[in-house]
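Chapter review: from sequence to fold.
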Amino acid sequence: MDSISTKNCTIHFNNTCYSSLNKHLLENNFSKIFILVDENTHEHCLPILLPQIETEAVIEIIEIESGEINKTIDTCVGVWNTLSELNADRKSLLINIGGGVITDLGGFVACTFKRGISYINVPTTLLSMVDASVGGKTGVDLGHLKNQVGVISNPDLVLIDTKYLDTLATNQMRSGLAEMLKHGLITGETYWSKFEDLSKLSLDDLDGLIYESVLIKKNVVEEDPFENGLRKTLNFGHTLGHAIESYFLSHPKKTTLLHGEAVVVGMILACYISTELTGFPKETTLKIKDLFVSYYGKITIDKSELPEIIDLLKYDKKNNHGNINFVLLEAIGVTKIDCLVDDTVIMDAFEFYAN
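The token string follows.
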């Protein structure tokens, strides 16, 4: 697969990843190389990456604990302190190898340490390959509120090697697929139709689908890097999806949801709301719901929990002037941004999902 060049970085795939990495290291003469991992990527992914690196620079490994619960400023402070103790300077390089937590947090650490050092993302989950690693969004959560602190800052390179997917559990693969399904719904029938029978998808199909999803996101963020218009469409399903994810994260009696699991629910809800408010065909909403539920199952959300979930919407990063802004569909591939939705319609959407 050909590399994809953006205005700010280059995304390399599979066989070109490591030759491109080594060329970059040679050309930039970094003083030290730091590799950020969690306990899972330290065990399963670092042994794939390390033998590929050709450099005379000192390499240091920094490990953080895995999981969204650790995507916090406190974790950043730990990494900043470690970088300082290990004498990182402004010519150091940080390589983030992991899923969205690692690439989001590691990117934020890099672009704030000493007012900015270079970094490279090596996404190892399907979700991070098609979403978190592309577009320059970095940041951390505030408590259980998602992505409240961060900056937009692009890595030097993104290295997408699908060999890392061999280390993933099935639920992690499904979580990543949710973002690809979203790309289909907001982009058009050509890409969406490739997912209409999920039972026919195989690992052999993934390389091409990942490449297409990366292109979709790249084209959107290049046109609107700071989310003033078109880039908002990438949040389809995320307004309620993030609220559900945050709610489940904050309640000890709830099983924490993966990002994609919450977004799938958010997309079903958004399709229902689209049918009610923007003329999205009801038949298409029903087909999408059946497809998603058949593959992901259903999560249980009691009516008594809905007010607290709806209250979390006020923290959504797309909001302005006190308004909660939804992305809705008029048709597959035809989006409408900055839609205001009454709470009663949201409640009806949850009832549609439950039934």
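Two observations follow directly from the output. The longest helix spans residues 203-223. The mean pLDDT is 95.
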